[in-house]
Each structure stands twice: as structure tokens, then as C-alpha cells.
Amino acid sequence: MKLKRRANLEPYLLLLPSLAYLAIFFAWPMVQAFGLAFRADDGRWTLEFFRRMVGDAAFWPAVRTSLILVLTIIPLQFILALTMALLATAGLRGSGALIYFYALPIAVSDLAAGIVWFSVFTERGYLNTVLQGLGLLEKPFIFLQYGATWAVIAVILAEVWRATSIVFVILVAGLQGIPKEYNEAAEVFGAGWFARLRKVTLPMLRPSIQVALILRTILAFQVFAVVVALTGDGVKVLASEAYQWYNQWRNLNVAAAYAALILAISMLSTGIYLRALRTRPEAQAV
User: Domain limits of the chain?
Assistant: First the structure.
């Protein structure tokens, strides 16, 4: 009886260090942040800091830009990562090396990626140099001018280059977990490549797609270093506004309100993905 009870407790004991880590470094700071967002200095509960956040002139531009980034980056990254993952797991000659090549950007930090792409788009950067060398431009074009559409496009390209590899690694792991017999059986029954992809691969890849989309959407709403490195204060996003309120105006309460909003949006998007990409029990059992 004691051995059975010990066996029942063993999984929870193994999870205990991870749970303690999450509680100390994530859950408790999150509770503290919500306290700053909803409580005034005198201890009373208030929505004043959220009113100040919404009333800020930069709030709605930051919301709009953050949504544009998410709605643009996530589909692009998923399509690119899925294509890369299918090529890397196709069993072609040299396809194993593609995994390492595609995964390289994971080693590049957000700030470093922003600096690299700044050197591409700046007035005397690589892009202007190439375009002038080809005779397509007479003088350098200012891609990163304040509030310009090109500045947002530069952020999108930098984020797609930097973080597509995260989605790629998750999808590769999911593809490698799909038994080959399923695709072989579908091929025997006359299913073409696209039919096998739509009817076999993607349904069985749904748990990995769910994880990848949840992770990238959360990180896309938190994008900060790439934006600052590329545009400074030229492009407003929610995370950069939270930093401005904390660092420049020294208002921890409004900064915490921005953080609470980002968390709420992330939780909402996670709930949508969990509901929209639910896996059937028979798919989970494979």
C-alpha cells in the first residue's frame, strides 16, 4: 500500500522544483504587477491607472501596431516554418543539415537581431547600398523614418527572420512524432501529396501547431527589443509603452497596467487557440 502511494506521489514530487520555480519567478511577480495596476499608494483599489493608460496619446497607436504585427507575423511565420519543417523532414539528401541551418536564428537575441536589421535598413545600410549600386536609387531612401510604414515592415521582417525558427523547431518535433505508416497507407490508397498533407499530416500535427501558435502570439504581443533597436521611439507597441512609463516617467502603476493588458490579451489568445485547435481523443492517443 505504501509503495503504491509513493508511486502515485512520484510524478508530483518530480514536478515540484518546476512548480516552485514558476511560483517564485512568475506567479508572485505577476500578482505584484496586478497589485500595482489596481491599487493606489494609499492601498485602495482603483481603475485610475487603466484610465490614464487608455487616455495616453500613444495608447491606441501602440494597440494598433501591436495587432498589425501579430496579424502579419504569425501567419507568415507559420507558413514559412511549416514549409521549412516539411523540407527538413522529407528525407531528401542533406535535409538533416537544413534543421541546423534553419534553427540558427534561435541563438540570436532580440536586441542583436534588431541591430543587424538596423544595419540593413539604415540610411547608409546594406539595402540602400545595393539599390544604389544597381541604379534603382539615386540617393539613400530613409526606410526607418518616424511613423513610416516602412519602419513597421522592417520590424515585421526582423521578427519573421528571428523567431520563425522557434515555430520551425516545434513543428519538426511534431512531424518526427507522426508514424510514417499513416502517410504510406494514405499513399497506397491513392492520396496525393497535398491530400496527405491536409488529411493526415496537419490533423496529426495539430497539438504542435497549437503550442507553436500560442507561444508565438504571446511573444509577438511582447515584442520590444527589436522595435527599439530598429526604430527607437518611432514605432509604438504595448511593451515599449510599458517601458516608457516605467523608465522615463517613473510611473510603476501605469506600466503595470500595460503589463496587465498584455497578459490579459495573451490569455485570451491562448484560450482561443485552445478552443479552435482542440484535438480529438483518438488523435491524442497516437
Answer: 32-108+162-284
Q: What is the Cα–Cα distance from 18 to 254, expressed in whole angstroms?
A: 31
CA distances for 26 relative to 22, 29, 211, angstroms: 5, 6, 19
**pTM for the structure as a whole:** 0.85
Hey, is 39 helix, strand or coil? Answer: strand
- Answer yes or no: are the C-beta atoms of 102 and 113 closer than 8 Å: no
What is the C-alpha to C-alpha distance for residues 144 and 232, in angstroms, rounded to an integer?
A: 10
Separation CA 227–CA 236 (nearest Å): 8
What's the pLDDT band for 259 if we cut at 50, 70, 90? very high
- CB atoms under 10 Å from CB of 34, counted, come to 15
Buried b (16+ CB within 10 A) or exposed e, 215-253: bbbbbbbbbbbbbbbbbeebbbbbbbbbbbbbeeeebeb
Q: Where are the beta strands (DSSP E) in the chain?
A: none
As a CATH number, domain 32-108+162-284 is 1.10.3720.10
Sign of CA dihedral 186, 192, 193, 199: negative
| Distance of alpha carbon 214 from alpha carbon 275, whole angstroms | 12
Alpha-carbon gap, residue 105 to 232, rounded angstroms: 22
Write the pLDDT tens digit of every residue in 190-222: 888 888 888 889 999 999 999 999 999 999 999
Q: What is the pLDDT of residue 286?
A: 42
95-103 vs 59-88: helix crossing angle, rounded to 10 = 160
Going by C-alpha positions, the residue among 285, 41, 279, 82 that lies closest to residue 175 is 82
Give bridge partners of residue 39 from the DSSP assignment.
45
